[in-house]
Amino acid sequence: MSYNTIILTKEEGVATLTLNRPDTLNAWNDEMGTESLQAMEEIRDDSEVRVLILTGAGRGFSSGADLTAMAQRGQVSTTKPSRTTLSTLPGVVALAGELRDLDRPTIAAVNGVAAGAGFSVALACDIRIASDQARFSQIFVKRALVPDSGSSYFLPKLIGTAKACELMYTGDIINAAEADRLGIVNKVVPHDELMNEAMALAKRIAAGPPLTIELIKRAIYKGAEETDLWHQIRYEWYLQGLAIRTDDFKEGVQAFIEKRDPNFMGK
C-alpha cells in the first residue's frame, strides 16, 4: 500500500513507521491519522513483522495536532466520545490505543520534538529511545486543551502522579536528559546513532520467540493494572502453559542442549 504522509518499511522482521510531514514537524492531520491506522492494520496482518519502530522524518518526532488544519476545518466537535463512538475518534487518538494493543513489541525512536499527541504516541510504545536532540512537552494546556491520546493514562504510571501533574499543568518543555532522569525514555543516544540503536534493539527482540514475546507483553500490561498478586501469578501460569505448547519452546530447549543459538519460527 502506498501512503502520502507516512513511510512504512520492513526488513528482517522489523517494520519502521515514519511520520512524514517534516515541514510541520510531523503534526497530525486527518490524513496522517488515517494512514497510520491503515499501516497498523497492515502490520497486524503481516506475520513476518515481529517488532515495530515508530519515528519521525526530519527534525521532529511529532509536534502534536496540526492546529492550522483544525482551524481551517472550522469548529471542533464537542461531542463526548463513548464506547459506541470510538471508531470516530481522530486517528492519532486511536493510534495510541492501537500501539498498546498491538501483539508485537513497539519502540519509539524519538528523533526530535515530541509534543502534545506526539508525546502521547511515544508514551504508548513499549520502549522509548531518544536522540540527545529530543524534547518533550505536554503542550496541551498552552492551547487550553486537555491531554489526550492516552497521555493522562500513560504518563502518571511512568513518572508518578505529582510529576505528571506538573508537566501537564505547565506544558513545560523538557530535554532528553531530563526525560531519561524521570524514566520517560529507556536511554538517550547521540542523534546520528538513534536509528542504528533502535534497529539493533528491534532486531535483537525480533530474533526471539514471537509468540512468547506476545504473551510477555500481555503479562506486563495486565500486571501493571492488577491489584491482586495471586491473580497475576495464576495468569502468568496460564500464559506459561500456552508457551510450553509452542514449537519454539521445543527449539529453545534443543538449542540449550546442543549449545547453539535457537532459531525461533513463531510456531
Low-confidence stretches: none
- Relevant CATH superfamily of the largest domain: 2-enoyl-CoA Hydratase, Chain A, domain 1
Structural domain tally: 2
SSE-based structural type: alpha/beta
What is the level-2 CATH architecture name of the largest domain?
Answer: Alpha-Beta Complex
SSE pattern, N- to C-terminal = EEHEEHHEEHEEHHEHEHHHH
List the helices and strands and how they pair.
Elements: E1 6-11, E2 14-19, H1 30-44, E3 51-56, E4 60-62, H2 67-73, H3 91-101, E5 106-110, E6 113-115, H4 117-124, E7 127-131, E8 135-137, H5 151-159, H6 161-170, E9 173-175, H7 176-182, E10 187-189, H8 194-206, H9 210-225, H10 229-244, H11 247-258
Parallel strand pairs: 2-3, 3-5, 4-6, 5-7, 6-8, 7-10
Antiparallel strand pairs: 1-2, 8-9
Helix pairs in contact: 1-3, 3-4, 5-6, 9-10
Task: Give an account of the 3D structure.
- The chain has 267 residues and is an alpha/beta fold.
- It folds into 2 domains: 6-206, 2-enoyl-CoA Hydratase, Chain A, domain 1 (Alpha-Beta Complex); 210-258, Orthogonal Bundle (Lyase 2-enoyl-coa Hydratase, Chain  A, domain 2), CATH 1.10.12.
- The protein is built from 11 helices and 10 strands.
- It has helices at residues 30-44, 67-73, 91-101, 117-124, 151-159, 161-170, 176-182, 194-206, 210-225, 229-244, 247-258; strands at residues 6-11, 14-19, 51-56, 60-62, 106-110, 113-115, 127-131, 135-137, 173-175, 187-189.
- Strands 1-2-3-5-7-10 form a 6-stranded mixed beta sheet, sandwiched between helices. It has a 4-stranded mixed beta sheet with strand order 4-6-8-9.
- α1 (30-44) links the parallel β2 (14-19) and β3 (51-56).
- α1 (30-44) packs parallel to α3 and α5 packs across α6 (161-170).
- The two termini are 27 Å apart.
